[in-house]
Amino acid sequence: MEENSAYRSILHFQLGAETLGVGVSNVLEVLRNNGLTPIPRSADFVRGIVQFRGEIITVIDFSEKLNLHENEPTSGKVIIVFQIKTNEHSFKVGVLADDVKAVEELHESDIKTVDEITHYYNPEYLEGVVKLKEEFVIVLDVNKIFSDKDIELIKTTAKNDKK
Is residue 119 part of a domain? Predict the structure, then answer.
């Protein structure tokens, strides 16, 4: 094994029938979903707001955001709180998930690009896919998932933007 090999920790979680993965560097905490406050007339993917460490954060449904309409609906048992960083913004957002499965230490070369799944996912935020045990985990770059319009909506909903 090379000494300078690039390893990453990936949190993988269940979202309906899909298993998704994200770098743990973006994950702040996993919360039990004890209820959300809905936001009237918000975007389809916004499920509400919740208090997190004294801040109000927006909670979204990745099934809607990622256009997984044919997926099983999420039970929303847990909320994964992410710290999102773009060139212009830094903000927290919660994502509903069915379950957190594990954190795996992976070598960068374990994450493979797969052209066949890019018609389901936007290739801009798709890092690739990795096989863990007997299942494939789709690895996302959460810093690239939100458009400027999405970020404005999240900022307005929760007022948690730090430029």
Answer: yes
The pLDDT tens digits of the residues spanning 101-145 come to 999 998 888 888 766 555 555 567 788 888 888 888 889 888 888
Q: Is 56 helix (H, G, I), strand (E, B) or coil?
A: strand
Residue 107: phi and psi, rounded to 5, are: -80, 140
Contact between 88 and 4 under an 8 Å Cβ cutoff? The reply is no
Question: The domain that contains 18 carries what CATH number?
Answer: 2.40.50.180
Domain containing 127 equals 7-158
Q: What is the pLDDT of residues 53-100, one digit of tens each?
A: 999 999 998 888 777 656 666 778 999 999 998 888 889 999 999 999
Q: Are 60 and 96 in contact, with CB atoms under 8 Å apart?
A: yes
Residue 1 domain-assigned (yes or no): no
The tokens for 121 are 């996912």
Q: DSSP string of 6-56?
A: -EEEEEEEEETTEEEEEEGGGEEEEEE----B--TT--TTEEEEEEETTEE
**Does residue 152 come out as left (phi exceeding 0), alpha (psi in the -120 to 50 range) or beta?**
alpha
What is the count of structural domains for the chain? 1
